[in-house]
Structures are given as C-alpha cells and as structure tokens.
From TrEMBL:
Protein family per UniProt: Belongs to the amidinotransferase family.
The UniProt record lists the keyword NAD: no
Domain of life assignment: Bacteria
Protein name according to UniProt: Glycine amidinotransferase
InterPro entries: AmidinoTrfase
Keywords in alphabetical order: Transferase
Annotated segments matching region Disordered: 94-113
Composition bias type Polar residues, residue spans: 97-112
Source species taxonomy: Bacteria, Bacillati, Actinomycetota, Actinomycetes, Kitasatosporales
C-alpha cells in the first residue's frame, strides 16, 4: 500500500473492505454524491424552504435549475476524479426521480429531495455501515440510491455488518405543531435558549437522527442534538453501540444542523471549531484535559457570497474531507481557512466546490467513507464529569 498522499497503482484491484473508525485515517474507499434530479423540497413538518428571490417562495417546490445542477455535477465529478488520481476507490449513488410523490400508510409527501449528501444517511463504524433514520419525509426513501453499493459490499466483504436503524413512522406526532412559525419570530438569545434546552422541531415520539450529526473519534462517538436528531435518536445510538462511549452534544448555534461543520476532527489531538460561538464549556474542557488542541476557525470567505437556493451556513467552510492525518480537502475559495490549517502542517488540497452547496453541503457532506486504514483506538483516556 502506498503512503499518505501518494497515488496507488489501481484502487479497483484492492479487495473491497468496510473499515473506518474516525475521520482522519488514510482514506481508501469513498462514496461521492450526485446532484442529478435534486429538487427544492415540498413543504413538510420537519423543514420549510423559502427562496423568494430565486423563484421558490415558501410553499413552492420543484427541480433545481438545470444550470445549477450541471455545474454542481461537474464539480462533483471532478472531485471524484481527483480522489481516484490519489489512489482512492470512488463509488457513486444511483439517483431516482426525486420529483415524484412518495408516501407510507401514515403520510403523503409531494416530493423527495436528492442524493448529493450521502454523509447524512450513512455512517461507518469499524466494519459496520448503518443507515440513519432521517427525519424528513422527503428523505425517507433516499436509502434506495445507495442499496446497489451496500449490496455489493455485503456480497463481497464477509465481515461487513449492514445495519439500518428502525424506519420511523414520521407521523405528525414526531413534530411540534407550528414550530417554524414561532421559531422564526424569536430573537437570537431566545433561539439559543431553545437550542440549549433542546426544545426544537422534533418530539421524542420515536428515535430520529442523521448520520452527519455523529462525529467519530475512535471509541468515542459525539452525537449532536439538532433540528434532525432528537434525544431518542441519541439513546438508540447509545444502545446500538454498547462498546463505545456515545455522548450527546448540545449546539451553540441558532440553527443546529449536523456536527460536521461545527466540531471537526482533524487528526489525533486536534479539532476545529466553528468560530461563530464557543462550544459547550464542558465539551471543550473534556477535550483539553485529554490533551486536544481546539482551533477556532477563521471567518469563512463565503460569508458574503452565498449561492442562490442555498440553505447552508457560511460555516460550511469547515465541512472538509481528510484524506489522511496530514492532508485536507478544502473548498478552493476558503483561502483564509486553508492558510490557518497550513500553519499546523497540513497539506491543503483546494477543491472547487461552491456550486455544490445548494444541493446539500460541502466536501464532507458530499462523501461517505467506506474504508480507511487504521484500527479502533481510545483518544480520551482521562474521563470524569458529564463526558
């Protein structure tokens, strides 16, 4: 096997293997999403899209503009090829018609969403791949896009564990009625108080979580409570992974959506934090007493340059992909962040990716790692207090 950052002769000749314990070990096999057929979602209790300046005011939905889809796919394809040139095996999902109406005996939803952000749905822990519940009705059937990949892995790697969390019913009982109408009228401090108390859109009627709300640090899994992950989902994960230490993390952001843009592992002993607000004091103290350095990210270059139809925060800048402990893929326009992390000895691989944001996220969101070199390790030997 080649060393960090070099090119393997042909990744397709390596045996398929599911193995990934963290977000920084050398990457060998990854899934990169696609923008094909993505739609602006129809309204539903979990989420509302409102883009009046871009032709999709509240209550409307439909296919993303063709020019935006083409540009996003070009950047995704180029990124996939960049990874292949570095000796990394790349798989892609199989898009379906996301504009179609879908439903269960409990509900009907006028549209689906897309398959750009595989990280939201799939989690690798060791030799297990877990399908998350998802809390949007529009994303309930998204797992279908990845079943060909998962089936092939299951058929090839006899040690692979293929798991799926209980599919949620997503009845009205899973959501707080009128949440968005009230939440949008609150001031920043009131919203932060709701976040701290986890008084958000989801109820505790059933376990709900997105895979992208889970940060993997070997023996420790950190689960962020957010707009898409509830306490019941955290408790399910804690029981599902009894040999791991599973921690609930409360965000300090007014719109918490996925931990991978706010608390980003870089390598053992180093973690990047969204610079907008300090993380929970106990969480920061827990990392520091275990000799982790916390880097406060610089303000994103994208702060004043958000693309149309994007629901992502400018802090998506921190949504990067580790190729190994020394190499980071970062969106090409995020030069201040690249310079900041270069000072810590990282090789920075700039990747044009701004056009992908409106389709569901950044470089980390757009990928899902199947195989990384490495074994299970304990990075937090000093334990006391809440964590």
């Amino acid at each position: 096997m080649t060393e960090y950052g070099t090119t393997a002769a042909d990744p397709a000749t390596r045996p398929l293997k599911v193995n990934s314990w963290n977000g920084w070990d050398p990457l060998r096999h990854v899934v990169v999403g696609r923008a094909d057929n993505t739609v602006v979602q129809a309204p539903e209790p979990a989420v509302q899209r409102d883009f009046p300046d871009d032709g999709f005011p509240l209550g409307t939905y439909g296919p993303m503009p063709a020019d935006m889809t083409a540009e996003a796919n070009e950047q995704l394809d180029n990124f996939a090829e960049l990874l292949r040139r570095r000796g990394i095996r790349v798989d892609r999902p199989t898009p379906v018609d996301f504009s179609q109406q879908v439903g269960t005996p409990d509900w009907t939803q006028e549209s689906m969403s897309g398959c750009m952000p595989p990280r939201d749905l799939l989690l690798t822990v060791g030799n297990e791949i877990l399908e998350a519940t998802m809390s949007y009705r529009s994303r309930w059937f998204e797992y279908l896009c990845y079943r060909p990949i998962l089936q092939r892995l299951f058929d090839t790697d006899e040690n692979m564990r293929w798991e799926a969390a209980p599919k949620p019913r997503l009845t009205d009982a899973s959501y707080k009625p009128g949440f968005w109408d009230t939440y949008h009228t609150l001031g920043t401090e009131e919203q932060l108080a709701r976040v701290r108390d986890y008084d958000l859109v989801l109820t505790e009627a059933e376990p709900l979580f997105d895979a992208a709300d889970i940060a993997r640090f070997g023996k420790d899994l950190f689960v962020q409570l957010s707009f898409v992950t509830n306490r019941s989902g955290y408790r399910w994960l804690k029981r599902h992974f009894p040999d791991f230490r599973v921690h609930a993390v409360t965000s300090t952001n007014t719109h918490p959506l996925h931990i991978d843009a706010t608390w980003v592992p870089l390598r053992p002993g180093l973690v990047l934090h969204c610079g907008e607000r300090l993380a929970d004091a106990e969480l920061m103290e827990f990392f520091r007493r275990n000799d982790w350095e916390i880097i406060e990210a610089v303000q994103p270059a994208s702060w004043e340059h958000q693309p149309r139809l994007s629901y992502c925060s400018p802090w998506l800048a921190g949504n990067m992909l580790n190729l190994d402990p020394n190499t980071l893929c970062i969106e090409e326009k995020e030069v201040p962040l690249a310079d900041q992390l270069s000072s810590y000895g990282f090789e920075i691989v700039p990747v044009p990716f701004r056009a992908v944001g409106p389709f569901g996220g950044g470089l980390h969101c757009a990928t899902f790692d199947i195989e990384r070199d490495g074994t299970l390790e304990d990075y937090f030997p000093h334990r006391y207090g809440r964590y």
